[in-house]
What we know:
106 residues; mainly alpha; single chain; F1FO ATP Synthase; 92% helix
Amino acid sequence: MNRKKIIAVVFLLIGMVGMMFAAEEAAAATAGTVDSTVSAFKYLAAALAVGIACIAGGMAVGRIGAAAMGAMSENSELSGKALPFVGLAEGICLWGFLVALLIILL
């Protein structure tokens, strides 16, 4: 599947979920239960933070890992210089988790 189609589908799904929560918020505002809607948005934002960060981290690790393995196959001395970049790409997922944790706790 084309990457542009995947991105379009993801944004479409995010928009549909956002419209669903907006309709629920309008109904909850008339009933006086706004706190539950706010907490629902917090969990949705946290899920998006972790999900997008993990997808981006996976894409980065895939590309950097392939390039590092290709470089190491030609020159084995590059292993100490190439593998830390893979670890840096995995750190993207950790930052997404930390953002989600801050969203939920604050």
